TrEMBL record:
Gene3D superfamilies recorded: 1.10.3730.20
Membrane-spanning residues: 12-32, 38-60, 72-90, 96-116, 123-140, 146-165, 177-201, 207-225, 237-257, 263-284
Designated name of the protein: EamA family transporter
InterPro entries the record matches: AA-Vitamin_Transporters, EamA_dom, EmrE-like
Length: 292
């Protein structure tokens, strides 16, 4: 998970902070899905990233003129990966249920955690995750949207790239500055699609309010909570807690959006969560960064 500035004077214990962050992100995703009929995925992503960047700029106030060339080289691709990840995820979310979109996206960081491993236990986790994907796949050619599934997997690939680039960026920039400047670059691969769609012309005060809530719940609040939690929480514990995200997404989709999953799809979510927890417990500790 990526760190970002916290502006609250109140302290939340580490574990509740992570859980609140997960709930906040999935609540934001539900808001986003409600905006799709009016703004589309491109317009919604543009609104979220644009407003998040403005809020972070106002709070962090990074001194852009003082950044060195090496810092720009690190933060630019990090931000571009962030923007691509969010855009692809919202494109997937427009076509498939929230719980399944997050579950498939989670395959990206899980694959990164398992990459290059030679432990037989990690092969077991990989097979378990593959079994989860197999349970989701509409083998009969009906049911779930195949392009939507592909987009979610592509978002997961961007998430894995984003984690690697985020670690490199964190080594040369403080977390709040990295996230703020990265959010500016995140707008670059998204805004052209948002402008081309024409959906941003449909913005009203009501939609701007919803966009502000989306930026708050999907970016500003969770990043702040996670930064606070990571000050005291071991990386492995943090990663295990984040493995609950697909379950939280499925529950959020059910409670907030009325999306129903089949028994097989719930099993798929469970398989991938167990694989993620298992990979975290058996692998060497590594930093994790926030997804969607």
């Amino acid at each position: 998970m990526q760190a970002a500035p916290t502006t609250s004077r109140f302290s939340v214990p580490a574990v509740p902070a992570v859980l609140l962050s997960i709930v906040s992100v999935q609540g934001g995703a539900a808001i986003a899905k409600g905006l799709f009929p009016v703004l589309g995925a491109a317009g919604t992503t543009s609104l979220r990233i644009g407003l998040s960047a403005l809020v972070l700029l106002a709070v962090v106030r990074p001194r852009l003129g003082q950044l060195r060339a090496a810092q720009w080289r690190a933060v630019a691709p990090y931000g571009l990966a962030l923007g691509a990840m969010n855009f692809l995820f919202y494109c997937a979310l427009a076509r498939i249920p929230l719980g399944l979109a997050v579950t498939l996206e989670f395959v990206g960081p899980l694959g990164l955690a398992l990459a290059g491993s030679r432990r037989w236990t990690d092969a077991l986790w990989a097979l378990l995750a593959a079994g989860g994907i197999a349970l989701i796949a509409p083998w009969g050619g009906t049911g779930l949207d195949l392009p939507g599934m592909a987009l979610a997997l592509a978002a997961g690939g961007c998430w894995a790239v984003y984690i690697v680039l985020g670690q490199r960026t964190a080594a040369v920039l403080p977390g709040p500055v990295a996230v703020t400047v990265g959010m500016l670059f995140a707008a670059l691969p998204v805004l052209p699609f948002g402008v081309a769609s024409g959906s941003l012309l449909a913005l009203t005060p009501h939609l701007l309010l919803l966009g502000g809530l989306l930026a708050l719940f999907s970016s500003v609040l969770p990043f702040s909570l996670e930064m606070q939690a990571m000050k005291t929480l071991p990386t492995r514990t943090f990663s295990i807690l984040m493995s609950l995200e697909p379950v939280a997404a499925a529950l959020s989709g059910w409670l907030l959006l009325g999306e129903q999953l089949t028994v097989g799809q719930w099993l798929a979510v469970g398989f991938i969560v167990v694989a993620s927890v298992g990979a975290t417990l058996t692998a060497a500790p590594a930093p994790a960064l926030q997804g969607d």
